[in-house]
Amino acid sequence: MPAAQLYKRFDASKPRRDAFLTPYFQLVHLANLSGITRTALRDATRFAREHTRTFGVPGQSSPCDNPLVQHVIGLLASLAYSTQSIVAALAASLDAIASAHALGTADTDAYICLDIQAFQAQQIVIEQTLEATTLLFEVEVEVGGGASATSETRRFDRYWRNACVLASHTHNPANLREAAIGAFYLNGDGHDERFSTPTPSPSRDA
Q1: What is the phi/psi pair of residue 57, to 5°?
Q2: Is residue 110 classed exposed, middle or buried when 0-12, 13-18 and 19+ CB atoms within 10 A define those classes?
Q3: Across the 206 residues of the chain, what is the mean pLDDT of every consecutive 10-residue run?
Q4: pTM of the predicted protein model
Q5: Cα radius of gyration rounded to whole Å, the chain
Q6: 15-187: which CATH topology?
Q7: Fewest 10 Å CB contacts: which of 36, 48, 65, 116?
Q8: What residue ranges do the domains of the chain occupy?
């Protein structure tokens, strides 16, 4: 494989600078979260359409005509749109930096700005995906089948659990990234994120 197509290696005890590895990994996580949000919307919509009764409404009635169900589906759709748009914008920025990197025109400031954009996207996409996967249960309640959300047949609870795993990943600390974003806007500082401690050089006398 040509060397130009390999990601730049880095010293894990130092901040990742002049490389787009951190935003790339972040984009993978966020794309997964966005996919969870879109799937929650798909399953919530399908669930509402399949039922002919609505909680609190006697007799047969379509949940699709219930304003409460429409409200929840509308919010789910908006969250799905938001997460997808944020991920698409980050992917476009990553492509632009990758192209500049290949041409040798990307500078340190450009890499730092990409890192900050990825961290900002992380804050919003995580929050909105967790909200969407919780709203999925609201659809179940309004339709009148709340308990079925956790059934082995539907397993809608797995979306929330999977989102939590991605959101709380040990090497993906959203709260620390908030501080990095603040330091950038307040002081113009690049993030100082490191993944190991410096390894002391071996003594020549050893």
Answers
A1: -115, 115
A2: middle
A3: 58 62 90 95 86 55 75 94 98 92 86 93 96 85 58 74 83 83 90 57 54
A4: 0.79
A5: 22
A6: Butyryl-CoA Dehydrogenase, subunit A; domain 3 (1.20.140)
A7: 65
A8: 15-187
